[in-house]
Write a structure and sequence with these properties.
Pfam families: GLE1 (PF07817)
Radius of gyration: 20 Å
Strand order of the largest sheet: 1-2
CATH architecture: Alpha Horseshoe
Keywords: Coiled coil, Cytoplasm, mRNA transport, Nuclear pore complex, Nucleus, Protein transport, Translocation, Transport
Subcellular location: Cytoplasm; Nucleus, Nuclear pore complex
Strand content: under 5%
CATH topology: Serine Threonine Protein Phosphatase 5, Tetratricopeptide repeat
Order of helices and strands: HEEHHHHEEHHHH
Number of strands: 4
InterPro entries: GLE1 (IPR012476), GLE1-like_sf (IPR038506)
Family: Belongs to the GLE1 family.
Shape: globular
CATH superfamily: GLE1-like
Number of domains: 1
CATH class: Mainly Alpha
Distance between the termini: 5 Å
Length: about 260
């Protein structure tokens, strides 16, 4: 609920502002240690990314409350935002977007790690699990770029707004597609912030959607085997529906003004 989210925001903001904050029965403050603030910014950013790959990957709607808090904190404490992007890019290179190539001399295990796979005792995580985590992180990113903390002063621009999303989409469409990963991430991204991009970029956005349908989807098809069609057909249907309706639906779970009255 809205009031609970404000409590969470205030607690994080107070901590980063150097005020003492009660946690597990004791007062902590970043001023207690010379590197206290650095450490908290780092750990906080890491935790936000973990929310993306965990909570958001299972409950898509949770992207919005997490993103709106992070967006507000980022505005007041830019270091948290920088740390967040660093963690996100390391865990999910597709958020850059970037598909790392295997360098000579790199072991397969090392290479899979750079692609974002979790590797434990030389065992690589299942593809489904990997895709789910990547999806959660992209959805969180797509929610952040369009949300502002409603109680901020709104004087400045969004610290990492829709122009970054527009750039992400353009760069993504300049990359050679990968089976599974590319169609899933494009769909996640468009479902979450397609509506906001449509409002902001109008005709340019529709040209991009048309390009995806006419040119990019066939390129994804060319690298996709018959067993990997799931993500691709969902993307295809989504793009087709949107072009027919000339409308991108609002994402499920977006925070409405009434949310903040709860």
């Amino acid at each position: 609920v809205g009031s609970k989210l404000r409590e969470v925001f205030d607690k994080i903001n107070n901590l980063l502002s150097g005020k003492p904050v009660q946690t597990e029965g004791q007062a902590v403050s970043v001023t207690q240690h010379p590197q206290g603030l650095e450490f908290v910014c780092y750990k906080l950013a890491e935790k936000f990314v973990k929310h993306g790959e965990g909570e958001v990957s299972f409950h898509h709607d949770s992207a919005f409350p997490i993103a709106v808090v992070l967006s507000g904190i980022w505005e007041l404490h830019p270091r948290v935002g920088d740390n967040f992007l660093a963690h996100l890019h390391k865990k999910c290179p597709y958020s850059v977007p970037f598909y790392p190539a295997r360098k000579g001399g790199t072991s397969m295990e090392e290479y899979q790690r750079t692609l974002g796979y979790e590797v434990h005792d030389s065992k690589v995580e299942e593809q489904d699990h990997f895709l789910k985590r990547m999806s959660g992180m992209i959805r969180l990113y797509a929610a952040i770029i369009q949300l502002r903390w409603p109680y901020g002063n709104k004087q400045g621009a969004h610290p990492h707004g829709l122009s970054y999303g527009w750039r992400w989409l353009a760069q993504m469409l300049n990359l050679e597609p990968l089976a599974d990963v590319t169609p899933m991430l494009l769909l996640d991204f468009l479902e979450v912030c397609g509506n906001a991009l449509m409002k902001q970029y109008g005709i340019q956005f529709w040209k991009t959607m048309f390009f995806i349908q006419k040119s990019y989807i066939p390129r994804i098809e060319a690298v996709t085997s018959s067993g990997q069609m799931g993500c691709l057909s969902r993307l295809k249907n989504f793009v087709q529906k949107c072009l027919q309706a000339e409308e991108i639906p609002l994402p499920k779970g977006i925070l409405t003004p009434s949310f903040w009255r709860t």
